[in-house]
Design goal:
The protein has about 400 residues and is of the alpha/beta class. The chain is built from twelve helices and 14 strands.
């Protein structure tokens, strides 16, 4: 990490199945008595064996924006606009029109609900049944445009739709843009929503577990132990040069490091070695020694092969002295496009509290192959954050106090 040009997270916010980012909602993640969250059936009307999901509680969006155009938006875009608004307030950034702001919109499947609403009537009743009001929202690039227009931002506006690694790829682009003085600060927002189409797709490819007679979750595919509980939500980060944050008098700040990434076939026998090499490059490019890493925020999205690659890579890097591991998907569900931002926020919150999030007692809710040790850390100063996608992409960065 280049100290004289460090990029820091000056503002953050999230909205998920846990709720908004508040002292109360984050505090639940540290309370061992309350850490098991209710994952009640949300898709039982589909009459398939699995119905569990982590969905955002119903919100009164009229209190945030009463316009009809806003109410027509897919939930993913509503989530994104909401968390960006909260993050900007949290960062206390300049609203000067001369300030150049870049928007980096990360997602995986955020436009699927609009696709459902637009194309289903067409497939049933013909082209004349399609609504031109719904069509513009069928592309993910609408998300970053909505944010730029709402706040009058004049910097670059980019959408990255690469599932779980989208946020870290966005962070990588944002850091380069700030350091090259293309923009003054960046908004990185990851968002995802759950729809019937997405849920059915994950179910039929064997990625969802189903409930047994005792109310537990067992793997859909007993051979590969793929068990993902799908989630939805959004998270936003405000990134800028450290000196600008200091000039505004903000004391609490967290540096975010360079991002390293790779693409592998997770069925390849050397996949975990490639993961390990990527982790080594990440630590080296950020001037972080192995013993400096206090904890790891793992993607652990419930895919057996991806989780095993992460596990083997961590063993290769750290040997028997693997740091404490945190799995945000245990709390939020697998939020796909929003997962990287949620992971970074979890890392920052743990360092600010100097405390570790508690794991759910019943790990049978997920069958990650990555279930390694849980340690008590003396001091939380440096985290290694990992992200992966079902396409075989893997990305990592470091977050430091």
């Amino acid at each position: 990490m280049i100290e004289t040009n460090s990029i820091v997270v000056s503002g953050k916010a999230f909205l998920s199945s846990v709720g908004e980012m508040t002292e109360e909602s984050m505090g639940r993640l540290y309370d061992i008595e309350n850490v098991i969250f209710d994952m009640e059936p949300r898709f039982d009307y589909l009459n398939i064996r699995c119905s569990r999901a982590r969905k955002v509680n119903k919100s009164n969006w009229k209190e945030f924006d009463s316009t009809s155009s806003f109410r027509r938006l897919p939930n993913a875009y509503k989530f994104a606009l909401y968390v960006v608004d909260k993050a900007l307030c949290n960062a206390k950034v300049d609203s000067d029109s001369n300030v150049s702001v870049g928007v980096f919109f990360a997602t995986g499947l955020s436009a699927i609900s609009a696709v459902e609403k637009f194309y289903h009537p067409i497939s049933v009743g013909g082209i004349e049944k399609g609504s031109p009001l719904l069509f513009p929202n069928t592309t993910s690039s609408v998300g970053c445009g909505l944010i730029s227009l709402r706040y009058g931002f004049n910097g670059k506006s980019i959408a990255i739709s690469n599932a779980g690694v989208s946020v870290l790829q966005s962070v990588d682009m944002a850091i380069s843009s700030i350091q090259n003085n293309e923009i003054d600060y960046a908004i990185v927002v990851g968002t995802e929503e759950l729809t019937e189409t997405v849920y059915k797709a994950f179910y039929h490819i064997g990625m969802l577990g189903y409930g047994d007679d005792k109310g537990g979750i067992i793997p859909y595919n007993m051979k590969k132990n793929n068990t993902t509980i799908l989630g939805e939500g959004a998270a936003a980060l405000i990134l800028e040069k450290e000196q600008k944050v200091v000039n505004r008098g903000l004391v609490e700040r967290t540096r975010i490091g360079n991002v390293e990434s790779c693409n592998v076939d997770v069925n390849d026998e050397f996949a975990s070695d490639i993961y390990a090499d990527t982790l080594k490059r990440c630590l080296k490019s950020n001037n972080v020694d192995i013993e400096d890493v206090d904890f790891v925020v793992s993607s652990a999205n419930g895919n057996h092969n991806l989780d095993k690659c992460e596990k083997d890579a961590l063993i290769t890097i750290f040997g028997d002295d693997i740091p404490n591991l945190i799995f945000p998907s245990l709390y939020f569900g697998e939020t796909d496009g929003a997962s990287g931002a949620l992971s970074i926020i979890c890392a920052i919150d743990m360092m600010e509290r100097n405390q570790s999030m508690k794991r759910p007692v019943n790990l049978n809710e997920h069958f990650q192959a990555i279930g390694l040790n849980e340690k008590v850390i003396r001091n939380y100063k440096c985290a290694l954050v990992l992200s992966s996608s079902y396409y075989g992409d893997f990305a990592c960065t470091v977050v430091k106090r």
